[in-house]
Amino acid sequence: MTETESLNSYDEVPYPSFPYSQSHPDHLATIAKLLGLNPPMRPYRVLELGCAAGGNLVPMAIDQPGCVFVGVDYSSKQIEGGLKVVEELRIDNLQLRTASILDIDESFGSFDYVLCHGVYSWVPPQVQEKILQICATQLTPTGIAYISYNTHPGWRQRGAVRDMMRYHVSRHRHETPKDRILRARELLDFLVQATRTSDCAYSRMLYEQQDLLRRHSDSYIFHEHLEQHNEPLWFLDFCGRLDEHGLRYLGDSDFGSMVASMSFTPEVQEMLESIAPNLLEKEQYMDFVRNRAFRQTLICHASAKPDYDVDGKRLNGLYAASPTIARPATGEGVENGQLEFAIPDGPSITTPSKTTQDTLMKLVQAWPARIRVSQLIADSNLETRQNANQEDIEELKRNLQASLLTAFATSSGKLLELSIAPFESHEQNALDTFPCVNRYVRRSAKLAQAIVNRRHEIVDVAPVDRHILPLLDGSRTPAAILQKLVEFQQARELHISDEQDNPIDDSERVRTILEEIVSERLQYYVRNSL
Description:
Helices cover 45% and strands 13% of the residues. The protein has 21 helices and 15 strands. By secondary structure, it is of the alpha/beta class. It has a seven-stranded mixed beta sheet, with helices on both faces. A three-stranded antiparallel beta sheet has the order 12-8-13. Strands 9-10-11 form a three-stranded antiparallel beta sheet, covered by helices on one side. The protein is globular and about 65 Å long.
């Protein structure tokens, strides 16, 4: 298969075009700040290589009208779909272009951020080379690039499954992509069935891969397992390629994955220090231990001087937020009155420090807004605690900063979010006057597509939200929204039923139920940063 045929397979089987919060320039800048650099701030210019239909760039462009975004993809079908959205929503700071990565030159200009998600491992060597060349020549001096790719050793076993699938479907070259995908899934089912009585590493591996791929779409199967190109790399080999282009590894989009103390016991950490003489070696050995299969690497020019001795002081210029709920902590050794800050059905954190608890509580109460960390420190009133002298106060500040950094790193940002940019909350406006979500959210709700919030995340929505969200253009009060839902119900466009799923026709009861729904959903939209 030629390079053109390989790339045009995305016309045959388009890949879902989603936002990737870990690739957002604000997030990349935050990681760079923590590592001691001064990355570009808004307004910035962003280039995405392999942008599909613009699902990653469109919400960014709408949220940040002062920035410039350019997306390139070889699939004309996907670019055409993205351009329809750009035209319909009148997005004037986003360009989507059908082009080969090989055709990008100086006429595109320079960029503060270059994003390349799900491309590098899946293209031929000359395109991989061009991606790094673009980063070397068109990234501004303080710019950051983000490149994701498959890695060893984690991809070794997956690669075996891929090879078997490709062999199997190669015997049916003239079938449609849909038929080939079906055959690939059937082969894996057969292998699991055939080895089910064997309690060995191979049979367990096949079962794990079957379970993993059942949760993925057909397009994932097609492009991850049936395409001609899929080159997993050793991390150090990728770093060697960076070095050839005057680039260097900066860090990982998942900051916590860089911190050995967050994953390993003190004994393992000590062993890592003894066998890994530098940062890159340590990252490679951590991949060995974790059996890592995928990386999201941040890249900068080789002239940059990141400082990996990260301490809490670097949080002072950042903003913090916490989506957790606070509840009484339980368990052995927990002090009376101690709180636990938790994500429902997710991670949690406890601390005996009253200062840290108070600070986290401020963030919980302010969510979804972000508060500047320096302001949090100033508001903690450390001077009034325990009649501390100046030296004690500085120690308390360092401890608080370290606690916040730990909360961020241990949970990959789930318990505590850090960002270079503020996030204003519009809760009062949403609940009392004229609630409004952006035009991309309204369009996506109408078309039953993924809903992207202001934090560049996909938000789970209920069927009723497909009726409510399109109404939130800032022109209707909650009472007017309620009236529209009543009209939808009367027109049989919206179905209200009881706990036994029987339709409710009583108009007064319907109105009462819908009134509760409107209030609850508006609060849900606020909580989920819509």
